[in-house]
Write a structure and sequence with these properties.
Elements: H1 2-20, H2 34-40, E1 46-47, E2 53-54, H3 63-75, H4 81-88, H5 92-103
Antiparallel strand pairs: 1-2
Helix pairs in contact: 3-4, 3-5
């Protein structure tokens, strides 16, 4: 019984560590950012759903900020319906990869 408990505890620790230790890979992002560039890659773009909304340029933002924003959309803490739908389709690894990619863009792409 003690061995079984030890195995279960170790397995739980390993699962928790792997989920918490997601590392973004910018090179894995090009196929994942196709949804993003249609709005975030156009300087001065304004979305009209659900209301007129100035879409921010995200190139050059910190990875931590982008990850935080995408997780907030995914949980529903941020309320833009299009972004929530996109974020819901992303895994934690996808979010980390997209954040890594955009954080490596230069700040000029935000203007």
């Amino acid at each position: 019984m003690k061995k079984l408990l030890a195995v279960l505890v170790l397995a739980g620790c390993a699962a928790t560590a792997s989920a918490a230790d997601v590392v973004g890979n910018a090179k894995a992002a090009p196929n994942k950012i196709e949804m993003c560039i249609g709005c975030h890659g156009i300087p001065g773009y304004k979305a009209t759903f659900p209301e007129v909304y100035q879409v921010p340029m995200i190139g050059g933002q910190s990875a931590k900020y982008i990850e935080s924003a995408l997780h907030a959309y995914k949980k529903g803490d941020r309320k833009h319906p299009s972004m929530r739908g996109i974020a819901m389709s992303l895994s934690d690894q996808d979010i980390a990869d997209v954040a890594a990619y955009y954080s490596q863009q230069n700040a000029q792409s935000r203007k």
